[in-house]
């Protein structure tokens, strides 16, 4: 009888601890994004593996517009926690397409988000970032917001107390997970066509007011770093930053605008030495800190996750 009472009391303590929000250590036992240490790490001081044109996957080497070889679920299994994609209309439905939907159509954005939502439901201790581009200046309220709403992703989206948020002001991964808002969505252009205007869908954040990127579509395998795309009012040192570590090859001599993702050199490009050298080359613009996002083609090749772990101190 005495043992039963003690057991009942212990269960009551556990229940009340959960109600009072004191169950944090238990929930974090398995770590945040795979590491217990990251639970106390601010989002703005964490490095995430990113997939460039994540939707453009194909196992067919003749699919010249591809940038990935494995699908979204397998990218996530490999450790990708930042997904980049480009939105275009296909018969008045928002799709992810590479330059145009006739070149490579990755399907409806809503379906894509449902795939990621399934992963997040099955992995409650993971923080995810989307960096989407809106080259056609599509209306956010009409096209982007409904895709998030219908996919069930909207309740998971983190909305800062103020925008733009400085790099040092972001909450920890553990705090985001505990709040239930553990997905960050950036968009490069807003509803009126101006870069990074605050969209009407307030959970979609203006990328270049909060994130700077270095040169994209690089054909230089040494990846020299510079602040290439950013917007005020924040200085680059107060922003998150992304290194575009995806190498392109010029396929038609004297026509520099025609580039393809360089699959042949992907093992070297995605190697530890190349990634860390690129990250180190950007430190003069980050007050010596590691990049927040390492964006790769062919995430299944090379040592992308190992490099990200090293940048995170593991």
Could you list some keywords that capture this structure?
314 residues; alpha/beta; TIM Barrel; 2 domains; 12 strands; 17% strand; globular
Structure description:
This protein has helices at 2-19, 24-27, 72-77, 109-122, 140-151, 173-179, 207-210, 266-269, 272-281, 304-311, and strands at residues 48-51, 82-90, 93-97, 105-108, 128-133, 183-187, 204-206, 211-213, 240-244, 248-250, 259-261, 293-296. The protein has 314 residues and is of the alpha/beta class. A hairpin with a 7-residue loop joins strand 3 (93-97) and strand 4 (105-108). Helix 4 packs parallel to helix 5 (140-151) and helix 9 (272-281) packs across helix 10 (304-311).
Write a short abstract of this structure.
InterPro entries: PI-PLC_domain, PLC-like_Pdiesterase_TIM-brl. With 314 residues, the chain is an alpha/beta fold. The chain is built from 10 helices and 12 strands.
């Amino acid at each position: 009888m005495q043992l039963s009472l003690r057991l009942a009391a212990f269960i009551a303590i556990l229940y009340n601890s959960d109600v009072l929000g004191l169950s944090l250590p238990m929930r974090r036992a398995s770590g945040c994004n795979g590491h217990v240490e990251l639970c106390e790490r601010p989002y703005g001081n964490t490095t995430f593996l990113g997939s460039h044109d994540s939707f453009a996957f194909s196992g067919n080497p003749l699919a010249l517009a591809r940038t990935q070889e494995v699908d979204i679920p397998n990218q996530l299994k490999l450790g990708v926690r930042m997904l980049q994609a480009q939105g275009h209309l296909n018969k008045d439905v928002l799709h992810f397409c590479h330059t145009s939907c006739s070149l490579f159509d990755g399907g409806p954005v809503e379906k894509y988000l449902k795939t990621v939502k399934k992963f997040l439901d099955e992995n409650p201790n993971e923080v995810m970032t989307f960096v989407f581009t809106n080259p056609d200046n599509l209306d956010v309220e009409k096209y982007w917001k409904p895709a998030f709403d219908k996919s069930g992703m909207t309740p998971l989206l983190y909305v800062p107390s103020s925008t733009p948020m400085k790099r040092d002001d972001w909450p920890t991964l553990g705090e985001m997970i505990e709040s239930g808002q553990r997905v960050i969505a950036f968009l490069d252009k807003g509803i009126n066509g101006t870069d990074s205007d605050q969209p009407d869908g307030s959970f979609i954040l203006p990328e270049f007011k909060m994130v700077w990127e270095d040169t994209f579509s690089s054909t230089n395998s040494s990846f020299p770093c510079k602040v290439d795309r950013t917007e005020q009012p924040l200085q680059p040192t107060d922003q998150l930053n992304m290194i575009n570590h995806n190498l392109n090859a010029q396929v038609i001599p004297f026509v520099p605008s025609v580039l393809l993702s360089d699959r042949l050199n992907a093992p070297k490009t995605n190697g530890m030495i190349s990634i860390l050298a690129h990250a180190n080359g950007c430190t003069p613009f980050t007050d010596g800190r590691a990049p927040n996002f390492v964006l790769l083609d062919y995430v299944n090749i090379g040592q992308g996750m190992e490099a990200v772990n090293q940048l995170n101190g593991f």
